[in-house]
Specification:
29% of the residues lie in helices and 24% in strands. The chain contains four helices and seven strands.
Amino acid sequence: MSTLEANPPRGHFGVWQRLLRGYGPLAVFALMILLLSVLVPSKVHDDEAVAADNAGSGSGAAAAPPADPTFTVAVLGDPTGGTYTLKATLGDDTQETAPLQFNAAAPDLDTAIEALSNVGADEVTVTGAGPFTVVFDGDGDFDDVVLAAGQNNLTGGTSPGL
């Protein structure tokens, strides 16, 4: 008898067939998965490598700086008098502004917020004529800042509030 097969398997699959003859299909499948896991890099690894390359290699893809925290302050209900306050919370430190007049302008809000010891001078930009846009521009110092309504002593109008 000849050791040659009448119809030998051809191509790459035939090589695997000859090498793994006698092993069960589960063992063959496990070996193929093992080889694929070694030969094919994982997607997570590729993403981490790309992120590391972008961060330190000067590849031209600079990471965008985090956006400055931005809040909108709107006086609602068309009040005709009274005052309101704002609360700025940074970490565990919550402070309340001095009372602001119902018709306060952007510079008034700016001054009141920057007077808080947990904020400080030149750390806030307030724009608009109502509603106001309040931007904390402290180079990452204010990533977790929260600006909220404080006391509402507004009068007149229809249900005045913030």
